[in-house]
Specification:
By secondary structure, the protein is an alpha/beta fold. 38% of the residues lie in helices and 12% in strands. The chain binds alpha-D-glucopyranose.
């Protein structure tokens, strides 16, 4: 008898450990599609609302992820751990994840970031050309362009996973139709066919690389009157149909999250546009993923109070709210959304639908299978930088080349390199780099345009650098780099002409004074309005925003690689003025 009893005890012990092991430590937990519904059904309202909440990493105190069962945390642009290394990021993201695994149901936390041209908050990560540059490749050679978008996505995913981050708010699927808009460079082109092909490739590259993509910003962000960021787009049904292909194709390619635009369509803010978010996107287009709001976008809706605005957004089809701006915003969001459900203003089936979509996304990126990052990886490898360098080279767009001066460059012995953009990693990278707005100077590891030229001409020519254009001596040619200060979003909006900056005009006057050929390279997020100034230039090259690997410019200037790029935007002499270079132009 005693033997049997002992055996019984042993078996029940084994059984007990087995069940707690699978049900307790969610690391082993695996859900298949139908059990997600069961999981939702087992959740309390508070847990469901928690899943629908995204807070900024700085606004969440210790244990609050567990206390509120938060579904997601993000890093806003430039929001980094104290130690901005992959190790520092992994320590932070693992820390947040562990907290989520302590909750009753252990639903793993989703961490999101704007890895929009590389994992661009992380110091010394590879920074690829912004989308405008990739779009220039596609405008010249669609196959090369889509390969570049795919590779940039896949390598960005690699450098995200190195830091424990599984979801990026990319790619932008808008097509800028007014270059005064500050987000023109985040779009691949004005041309819908290019945006569609490149958007699909970016989604595939990111997701094949193991992270979740996020289509943004739905819909009509590039069609606002006068290119105003967060402005209003007047679109009839055809106008809407015309800009849907990138989204239809990206959904077919497996994109499972989407961010609405701050802007409005026909006077209705996108974040409360039920007809477009639910009737069109979810019902007609069959989008099964989830909708994440933009940064504190709810507070811009038509409702008279934050609580009313929350009801508008959730009932319009927003599934998770990026409740940021200040800490109270997410705490109040949690409270108000529960009240809205208890008051019957937001239905429980709307809540269940939102939570199911969020869990479906988490499952699609493997979060239920692996949660923690075992070991920090590397960012900025030589291989990744070489890939980015090829893209920077291929994006170069030759717009003017009098007397074929470019082909004579390798024969010149004395070259003067000038311009604030010639030795300036920050200017090469533009916005969304290390900080939200980006900034001038040696902000992260990379190769400047000057350094690329010096390496390419080593032992063959004497290269002098003078940022302001004043240098002693005589030269065979001047390479003058002009362009834009780094910016992001509204900070990049222009109400009128995007003229050559004063600092560059001053430098150009000096460059002209040497009487030798002047080759102008423009580092900018969009076509700038240069009037007739280009007539003084022997050659004119658009480099767009090439990223950290500025050496790619020299690879083309000194004959290692051909010019592939064509302008992905119509280039006018002045805003709404005469066309200087039509869309797709390049020598
Ligand atoms: C920003 C941008 C959006 C970004 C989000 C999180 O305001 O509009 O593109 O993904 O906030 O940083």
């Amino acid at each position: 008898m005693r033997k049997h009893f002992a055996a019984l005890v042993l078996i029940s012990l084994l059984l007990f450990t087995h069940t707690t092991c699978t049900s307790g430590a969610s690391a082993k937990k695996t859900y298949d599609w139908n059990t997600l519904e069961e999981l939702v059904a087992s959740m309390t309202l508070a847990e469901k609302v928690g899943q629908m909440t995204q807070a900024e990493r700085k606004d969440v105190f210790k244990t609050e992820i567990e206390q509120y069962a938060l579904g997601s945390i993000l890093s806003g642009g430039g929001s980094t751990p104290e130690v901005n290394t992959p190790k520092g990021w992994v320590a932070m993201t693992n820390g947040f994840m562990k907290e989520s695994l302590q909750t009753r149901l252990g639903i793993p936390l989703l961490y999101g970031i704007d890895a929009v041209h590389g994992n661009s908050n992380v110091l010394d990560a590879t920074i690829f050309p912004h989308n405008v540059g990739l779009g220039a490749i596609a405008a010249g050679n669609m196959e090369r362009g889509t390969e570049a978008a795919y590779t940039a996505g896949r390598l960005t995913a690699q450098e995200m996973l190195a830091t424990g981050i599984r979801w990026t708010f990319a790619p932008v699927l808008g097509n800028a139709e007014d270059v005064r808009w500050g987000r023109t460079y985040e779009c691949f082109s004005e041309d819908i066919a290019i945006v569609t092909a490149m958007g699909v490739s970016a989604v595939k590259g990111l997701q094949d690389g193991g992270v979740g993509a996020c289509m943004k910003h739905f819909l009509g962000e590039g069609q606002t009157t006068d290119g105003l960021n967060k402005g209003d787009a007047v679109l009839d049904r055809d106008g809407i149909e015309r800009i849907l292909p990138p989204y239809r194709a990206a959904i077919d390619a497996g994109a499972m999250s989407l961010m609405p635009s701050f802007s409005s369509v026909n006077g209705i803010k996108m974040h409360e546009h039920k007809e477009l978010l639910t009737d069109l996107l979810k019902d007609e287009m069959g989008f099964e993923g989830f909708i994440i709001s933009d940064w504190d976008a709810i507070q811009q809706l038509s409702g008279g109070s934050y609580k009313e605005q929350i009801g508008q957004a959730i009932n319009a089809g927003v599934d998770m709210v990026m409740a940021t701006g200040k800490r109270e915003n997410w705490l109040q969001y949690v409270q108000y959304l529960q009240e809205l459900v208890e008051e019957g203003i937001v239905s429980m089936e709307r809540i269940d639908d939102a939570v199911l979509r969020i869990l479906r996304f988490k499952q699609s990126i493997g979060l239920f299978d692996t949660q923690l990052t075992k070991k920090a990886g590397a960012v900025g490898s030589k291989a990744n930088r070489n890939a980015a360098r090829e893209m920077a080279a291929d994006s170069l767009t030759l717009l003017r080349n009098e007397n074929d001066v470019i082909s004579k460059l390798p024969s010149y012995k004395r070259i003067l390199v000038t311009g604030q953009g010639a030795h300036n990693i920050g200017m090469q990278c533009g916005g969304w780099t290390i900080t939200w707005q980006g900034s001038h100077g040696p902000i992260t590891k990379g190769t400047t345009i000057l350094e690329g030229i010096q390496a390419a001409t080593k032992g063959k020519a004497n290269v002098t650098y003078a940022s302001g254009g004043k240098a002693e001596g005589t030269f065979d040619a001047i390479i003058a780099v002009i362009g834009e200060d780094p910016y992001a979003e509204t900070d990049g909006d222009r109400s009128d002409n995007i003229n050559i900056r004063d600092v560059d005009m001053k430098m150009l006057q000096h460059a002209y004074s040497y009487g030798c050929p002047v080759i102008v390279i423009m580092v900018s997020g969009r076509p700038m309005t240069i009037g007739d100034e280009y007539e003084k230039w022997d050659a004119f090259i658009a480099a767009w925003l090439p990223g950290t690997e500025g050496g790619g410019i020299a690879d083309v200037l000194f004959g290692k690689r051909d010019f592939i790029g064509r302008t992905p935007y119509t280039w006018r002499k002045t805003i709404n003025g005469d066309v200087l270079y039509p869309f797709g132009f390049g020598l």
